[in-house]
Specification:
heterodimer; A: Rossmann fold; globular; B: 221 residues; Methane Monooxygenase Hydroxylase, Chain G, domain 1
Chain lengths: 281, 221
């Protein structure tokens, strides 16, 4: 792995990319990525490229390593003491795990939205303003908050109660608030780990509409258990499965990565076919 | 294997299509027999029998509507459901062509005929019936080669159709046979369309097996 990369270089390199057609430019180039937790192999040798302004979905059964994989994209696995990442994760051509790379800067450029909405127990305004303030983006903070809330399709619903506690919002609104919080620091990529699995169908529909909007400005990687959701929102889909070793141990593998339309109409691998048609297991 | 009920509904759907196919083959044979024997009574039977074909088509459509709404099929399941939907409509149209043949036969009853032309139409009808059978078998066996063979068989029918037209034109000098000849041109056209529908059913088999719609279309040219 490359070492000694100035974290600012990563920011500059991604910021410098202002032109380009959707899906032609590589944001993440992952090669032979394996993840272990202690002596347990969780994911074995995954290789794929994530394209700019595409929605890329990771699908697969429980334990297939898809959440482990997405957490490698913004170094969230660093927070798990026993986790070790092997292989290369190149972000705009730079090694994300290079020795000089600041994980905090990485997480600013590559935001994340989790399964369960997790707003701070503060006002709606403060939820959005918190990260920009900490990162020194204090100019025009009010405008920044409004822009983020508009970007997350939440502004019209909360503009008259910005000082109210965010915990008073519905689950769907809380999740859009978390998306607003993620985009307030102007990231390059938004990672979403089951962003709608705790929401009702109406709120899920809003999140999916929002994903369609957001991909104009951001690169989105989404883990979902809902295959129809992947079929609806994603440009590319990666199917992960569980491989059982001779010693009885199990680890995740990337089985197939292709255009979403191909995965859901005519997948190349029988394991993918069995999973998407519900014949898995 | 999970989704047992779903698999049952797909199996039942396919079985229902094959049953519709068997009914349609009976209709084609009935229409051609009636034409050859100038059997007006049999014509009426063929015309009435079409209600059964239509009823089967509507039931298949209803089943597919439910499967799409309840099961959201994808990949090969989705292709199968779409193929059955198209095939059922093609079979329904073949039934309609059989009815038209029967009606024309009734209208031409009692007119002066030409034996060689009747034999030619009989031959075309037999080929068309065989093509429908091959098309349905190709689906059942998921046999792309069998499906593609329909294109060559269709060419034989098309050739006979052209020959019928020339023969009728020759009959212009026989005023007594003109009306019958004109009606037989339309009969010939109906049989030719049955062959086309069989080719279309074969295309659906290719699409189901390969997942490549362009390949399926190309195979018919």
């Amino acid at each position: 792995m490359e070492t000694g990369v100035d974290p600012k270089t990563i920011a500059e390199s991604s910021r410098s990319i202002v032109t380009g057609t959707r899906g032609t430019e590589t944001v993440f180039d992952v090669a032979g990525l394996s993840v272990t937790y202690g002596s347990n192999l969780a994911l074995k040798e995954a290789t794929l490229e994530v394209k700019r302004n595409f929605v890329t979905a990771f699908i697969g059964p429980s334990g297939c390593g898809k959440s482990t994989f997405i957490r490698c994209f913004n170094r969230m696995n660093d927070l798990v003491p026993s986790a070790k990442v092997h292989g290369a994760v190149m972000y705009h051509g730079r090694d994300l795990y290079g020795a000089g790379v600041d994980p905090v800067e990485v997480r600013r450029r590559i935001g994340m939205v989790f399964q369960k909405p997790n707003p701070f127990p503060k006002s709606i305004y403060d939820n959005i303003a918190f990260a920009p303030k900490v990162l020194g983006m204090k100019r025009d903070l009010g405008e920044r908050v409004e822009k983020a809330l508009r970007g997350a399709a939440l502004w019209d619903e909360v503009k008259d109660r910005l000082k109210e506690n965010a915990l008073g919002l519905s689950g769907g609104q809380q999740q859009r608030l978390c998306i607003a919080r993620a985009i307030a620091v102007e990231p390059d990529v938004i990672l979403m780990d089951e962003p709608a699995s705790a929401l009702d169908p109406i709120s899920t529909g809003r999140i999916e509409d929002l994903i369609h909007e957001l991909k104009n400005d951001y690169t989105i990687v989404i883990v979902t258990h809902n295959m129809q959701q992947a079929a609806r929102v994603a440009d590319m889909t990666a199917f992960f499965s569980v491989e059982v070793r001779e010693d009885g141990g199990r680890h995740g593998i990337l089985v197939e990565y292709d255009q979403t339309t191909k995965i859901f109409t005519n997948p190349s691998d029988k394991r993918t076919e069995d999973y998407v048609t519900g014949r898995f297991g | 294997m999970p989704r047992v009920e779903f698999q049952h509904s797909l199996d039942a759907l396919e079985a229902s299509l094959q049953e519709q196919g068997a009914l349609v083959i009976r209709a084609v044979r009935g229409a051609i027999d009636a034409l050859e024997k100038q059997d007006v009574e049999l014509c009426d039977e063929v015309i009435a029998f079409d209600d059964e074909v239509d009823d089967r088509h509507h039931r298949i459509e209803k089943s597919i509507e439910l499967i799409l709404a309840q099961q959201a099929p994808v990949a090969s399941d989705l292709r199968l459901v779409l193929a059955v939907l198209h095939d059922s409509l093609h079979l329904e149209r073949i039934g309609d062509q059989s009815v038209t043949i029967a009606k024309l036969t009734k209208l031409a009853a009692g007119l002066e005929t030409r034996r060689d032309l009747v034999d030619g139409l009989r031959e075309m009808g037999d080929r068309a019936e065989e093509m429908v059978r091959i098309a349905l078998d190709s689906l059942q066996r998921r046999d792309v080669e069998m499906a593609r063979s329909l294109v060559d068989l269709d060419e034989l029918i098309d050739r006979t159709n052209r020959r019928v037209t020339y023969t009728v034109l020759e009959m212009a000098s026989s005023p007594g046979q003109q009306e019958w000849g004109m009606r037989m041109i339309v009969v010939s056209r109906c049989i030719e369309r049955i062959g086309d529908h069989a080719v279309n059913i074969g295309q659906q088999t290719t699409f189901l097996v390969t997942g490549d719609f362009h390949q399926a279309i190309d195979s018919a040219h």
